[in-house]
Design a protein that fits this description.
two-stranded parallel ribbon, 489 residues, single chain, 14-stranded parallel sheet, 29% helix, 18 helices, 18 strands
Length: 489
């Protein structure tokens, strides 16, 4: 008996599964038409099956190895293989996966006027297997989704749905209730037009909802989308908006109310520093001024552009927080690359006494510090009756920092928060930005974090911020920071 045959077949099947190329698990911009054909053929599995008869039997007899169906019909015309050949490769995977639950990602591009119908033919193969769908991601540029009507009430295993709707006729051709009866559906994400009606889906059972707006002139429509999530009680609800029109109307947003429990609002403005007009407009304020979210437990305000930080609108946020009753509901708050001062954040936190988790980031491009001695001291219970500490229930504090605070102030904060009798271990994460006021944390602070963690009263992390590229360096910061960490005007 060979060494290979000494290992059980299920062990080899697990190894083969782990060897799956990344492009066979998800779409990639690096996939060429030739690689598309190889992916459909499961070439890596076919190569393994030729090593020996034992491996051949494992590959062909393990349905789980064939559970991924990833097909991009936009590449088929240049693959060098006929449409019928590529469709047959999909059929082979469907047959060899037997009754195993399927994970499907497909990009469909049909134009019947030009005789291009690969997307419709592919859907004709996949839809009869809808009772096995565990996850499905659909991208399309032409209306080839009509066959989806056949899966209605036939998706008992479906847990994850992703739709990228490049065509606004989807709801007219397919109908709105295809995913209405999906007893296991937990994650629904969608990319497309904000003015396209959402398909019906079981909002109250979702753990994740996500929407990315493709059209930058639909900011108000994207906000009204939040109103359709009334009753969402899941862990993650994110709305991502690209905004690149300096003339966009910020004065006529409809009022939106929703009982959603979570909202991460991500704004992407142009990274070009010459687009000053848009950066100086109160985009965030216009959105917050339209919202009332009385059941909100998590709020994240995120700017994805590293080169510039988002303008804060303090008045609108305070009105939003009071209107939404954050004092009694909000327990998690995140601010990332937003130009807010420490004084303004302190005032915001005064309206969030129930907060247990706080995530904040200094603004590296502007060398603007939010995590300062003032903020850290206000978060520390000094034991003075006249000074009430902010957010007394806080048990998680994560910062991406320029090191504008003193280590002494932070050590006091750590000692006080970690020393609460009977409380669960407090968690602190310190991520330093490569552009920062001083090179590092003191050894005293690092030693204290390690000692408190060993004592079981603190969970402590201190490392470089993984989100920033290596182009940001401490050397570059020396041109804008003084020798003692003070900003140079």
């Amino acid at each position: 008996m060979s060494f290979a045959e000494r290992l059980p077949a299920e062990v080899w099947a697990t190894v083969f599964d782990l060897c799956m190329p990344e492009e066979d698990e998800e779409f990639s911009d690096a996939t060429t038409p030739v690689k598309e054909a190889y992916r459909l053929a499961k070439l890596y599995l076919l190569r393994l099956s030729k090593v020996c008869s034992y491996w051949h039997a494992i590959v062909m007899g393990t349905p789980a190895l064939w559970r991924y169906i990833i097909a991009d019909t936009t590449l088929w015309g240049k693959s060098g293989y006929s449409e019928s050949t590529l469709l047959r490769l999909v059929s082979v995977s469907l047959q060899r996966s037997q009754n195993f639950p399927l994970r499907i990602q497909v990009a469909l591009e049909d134009d019947t006027a030009l005789g291009q119908t690969s997307g419709a033919k592919l859907m004709a193969l996949l839809c009869p297997h809808s009772t096995r769908w565990r996850s499905i991601y659909l991208w399309h540029n032409y209306p080839s989704f009509e066959l989806l009507v056949t899966i209605k009430n036939r998706i008992p295993l479906l847990e994850t749905v992703g739709l990228s709707l490049q065509n606004d006729q989807w709801h007219e051709r397919v109908g709105m209730d295809v995913f209405g009866d999906a007893p296991r559906l937990a994650e629904f994400t969608m990319t497309g037009r904000a003015d396209t009606p959402l398909p019906t889906f079981p909002v109250r059972q979702l753990h994740v909802f996500g929407f990315t707006n493709l059209f930058t002139d639909e900011l108000a429509e994207a906000c009204t989308l939040i109103g359709q999530l009334d009753g969402f009680t899941g862990d993650q609800c994110w709305i991502r908006l690209d905004v690149d029109d300096p003339e966009i109307d910020l004065d006529h947003f409809p009022s939106v109310s929703s009982n959603t429990s979570a909202l991460q609002l991500t704004l992407t403005l142009p990274s070009n520093r010459n687009a000053a007009t848009l950066w100086e407009r109160p985009v965030l304020g216009a959105i917050l001024g339209a919202l009332t979210l009385p059941s909100l437990q998590y709020l994240g305000l995120i700017n994805t552009v590293k080169q510039r930080s988002l303008l804060w609108d303090h008045a609108h946020f305070l009105q939003f927080s009071q209107r939404s009753q954050f004092r009694s509901t909000l327990v998690e708050f995140e601010l990332n690359r937003v130009l807010i001062t420490d004084v303004e954040l302190i005032e915001c936190l005064q309206h969030m006494p129930a907060l247990t988790q706080l995530v904040v980031a200094d603004c590296a491009p502007e060398n603007h510090a939010l995590v300062t001695d003032l903020l850290v001291t206000r978060l520390t219970d000094t034991g003075t009756p006249a000074v009430t500490p902010l957010v007394p229930a806080l048990n998680f504090f994560s910062i991406s920092t320029l090191f504008a605070f003193s280590d002494g102030a932070f050590i006091d904060f750590m000692n006080q928060r970690a020393g609460r009798a009977g409380a669960a271990p407090f968690e602190i994460k310190i991520y330093w930005l490569p552009v920062r006021a001083r090179p590092q944390l003191s050894q005293q602070l690092l030693d204290l974090g390690s000692a408190l963690e060993k004592g079981g009263v603190l969970l402590f992390t201190a490392s470089k911020d993984p989100e920033y590229d290596s182009v940001w360096s401490f050397a570059a910061a020396q041109s804008s920071w003084g020798p003692n960490g003070s900003a140079i005007a």
